[in-house]
Specification:
The protein has helices at about 20-35, 40-45, 60-65, 75-90, 100-105, 120-125, 150, 160-170, 180-190; strands at about 5-10, 110-115, 130, 135, 145, 175-180, 195-200, 215. With about 220 residues, the chain is α/β, with parallel strands linked by helices. It folds into 2 domains: about 5-15 and about 95-215, Rossmann fold (3-Layer(aba) Sandwich), CATH 3.40.50.1000; about 20-90, Orthogonal Bundle (Transcription Termination Factor Rho, Rna-binding Domain, Chain A, Domain 1), CATH 1.10.720. A 6-stranded parallel sheet has the order 5-2-1-6-7-8, sandwiched between helices. A two-stranded antiparallel ribbon has the order 3-4. The radius of gyration is 19 Å and the shape is globular. The model has no long low-confidence stretch (mean pLDDT about 95). The structure holds magnesium ion. It is an enzyme of class 3 (hydrolase). Monomer. This is Enolase-phosphatase E1. It is found in: Cytoplasm; Nucleus.
């Protein structure tokens, strides 16, 4: 591989898109009833930040926010709290692809760039399902750094990738960005990075063929 540094997207690239929609979101929704009656101080403090007129029907209100995919900052914090507990108690493990685990462990310089928060990214890579056992793997020691929308900006803007290069202290030509999203690859290549389009099971068909080189298996990298 000519690029010394890897910058990896998460959903649709190192783990199935379905993990978020079919595992993380239902896990949170299932915990909402016990959450609103938990009496846990950290949770109580968050709940009081929801609008005053919703305090009588918090459970319904929270589930409605989830259903409508509303980007509510309090909801995000609550979800982060619930998922952290789920990961720590072994109820959730991240289904990172076997060849992605191997790629990350191979010892190159690996960075992550995802729209999920850095905190959520660290939880995910700290609690990966071992494909060969029911144990969990901690991939965090193999990851040099994490970037999200707050640290670096939108994934579809070239400026975000320039910011990331600056933070890495790297030249664009040394970095390979892998993502399943062509708009993200457009932005990364505008910033001069090398790119590969991830085509993995469960991904939506590629919308347009912009000629990006495709990768289906990371063991060849
Ligand atoms: Mg993706």
């Amino acid at each position: 591989m000519s690029s010394r540094v890897l910058l990896l997207d998460i959903e649709g690239t190192v783990c199935p898109i379905a993990f978020v929609k079919e595992v993380l979101f239902p896990f949170f929704s299932g915990k909402v009833p016990s959450l609103v009656s938990s009496g846990e101080p950290a949770v109580e403090e968050l709940l009081t930040q929801f609008p005053q007129d919703k305090q009588q029907c918090l459970q319904e209100y929270i589930l409605e926010l989830v259903d409508r995919d509303i980007k509510d900052p309090v909801l995000k914090q609550l979800q982060g709290h619930v998922w952290a507990q789920g990961y720590e108690q072994g109820e959730i493990k991240a289904p990172v692809y076997r060849d992605a685990i191997e790629l990350i462990r191979r010892g190159g310089e690996v960075y992550i760039y995802s729209s999920g928060s850095v905190k959520a990214q660290k939880l995910l890579f700290g609690h990966v399902a071992d494909p060969d056992s029911d144990r969990r793997l901690d991939l965090q020691p193999f990851i040099r750094g994490y970037f999200d929308i707050n640290t670096s900006g939108k994934k579809t803007e070239a400026e975000s990738y320039r910011r990331i290069l600056k933070d890495m202290g790297r030249e664009a030509r040394d970095v390979l960005f892998i993502s399943d999203n062509e708009l993200e690859l457009d932005a990364a290549s505008e910033a001069g990075l090398n790119t590969l389009l991830a085509v993995r099971p469960g991904n939506a068909p590629i919308s347009s063929n912009k000629g990006y080189e495709i990768v289906k298996d990371y063991s060849a990298l």
